[in-house]
Amino acid sequence: MNTYVTHLESAIDGTHLPADRVQTVHEGRPLWVRYDLDAIRKNVNPTDFQNRPPTLWRYRELLPTSDNTEIISLGEGMTPLLKARRLGEKLGLRDFWIKDESQLPTGSFKSRGFAMAVTMANHFGLTRFATPTAGNAGGALAAYGARAGAEVYVFMPSDTPLVNQVECTLAGAKTFLVVDGLISDCGRIVRELSDEMGWFDFSTLKEPYRLEGKKTMGLELAEQFGWELPDVILYPTGGGTGLIGMWKAFAELRELGWLKSDKMPRMVSGQSDGCAPIVRAYEKGERFADEWDEAATCATGLRVPKAVGDFMILDAIRESGGCAIAACESDIAGAMREAISTEGISICPESAACVLAAQELIARGDIAPDDRVVLFNTGASQKYAGFGDQEQISIHLNKPVDPKTFRTTYSHN
Ligand SMILES: *Cc1c(COP(=O)(O)O)cnc(C)c1O
Prior knowledge:
Strand content: 15-25%
Oligomer: single chain
CATH class of the domain at 81-107 and 211-384: Alpha Beta
Bound molecules: pyridoxal-5'-phosphate
């Protein structure tokens, strides 16, 4: 099979660029990968996917690879879509679902993007990779880079959760902690040194293929619901690739005519009020978001003060009839504990912020009790253990006791 990719297209001004060579950004802004959807419609039936292995590569016609691309994979994709009856009841929702991305390689949905981006970089012969990260992107690039036999450099804020630091170094990435820096400072280091160091910059949306990997979340969701999309999608937003990628998937599926109805979900972007540039721009009616000063949140994936794809996020939210909403930072750790203890799903703080956002939208009447609502759990909660101060994500253990005391304390009788 040859690829169905026709070209790359600048998201800011529509300029076409050839897809048969390494591309990054155009005018500093991201690129879309475009496909010959008419040819795909002729040659592929969505039922074909069901007979293929349960990884994201089952959607290969809608991906940039071709038959002679070596796939760099850790078995990513087809994460469970779990009905969350108990948490739904607490929220007042009868049709509430969690798509559990915490079960992916490296414990977050970042593996989808990096499986695709590293596969394509490797295809183009690139072997020195670098990325700034708030945590999980570094872990994913380190793992997929190792899988491809590449050399990986990762730059992260010095207060990034320890597990993210450990996963990068264990996978052999040269890992640097940037003191008093945020992901934007890490990004500057990568940008300024890339030419000199011969690095390929994997920063969010600085190359076109991570987005195609993220797109598979939307394709899977559609397939899992029998090619019918839910009413509302709750998605935590940092750099925005998840939300933008999913919206792109839905647009492509609609154009292919594979959806049972043309009704698109309302995309809800969840942030923390400790770093909410997209929410602020949404509320002001703006298409571009100003940088957020002094970004601080225990949901490290949301600690992105300035997103290069801000207009793509805001366009998707508005086109969908959704909204952007910020959770109260001090409520996130509690909401996370509550959600995990209610469902047993390893819900990360980023997605806990979305649970709080849902609460608010339900109270306002913007989400109805019978709406089909899907929360994306973008990462695994255990990666954040010990992060932040005691008020945030700490471990609550009971003190060891002798059997006699135990009996009097915990006995039912
Ligand atoms: C990166 C990340 C996010 C934010 O995703 P974007 O696609 O960058 O908006 C949310 N949650 C987790 C766990 C992440 O690692």
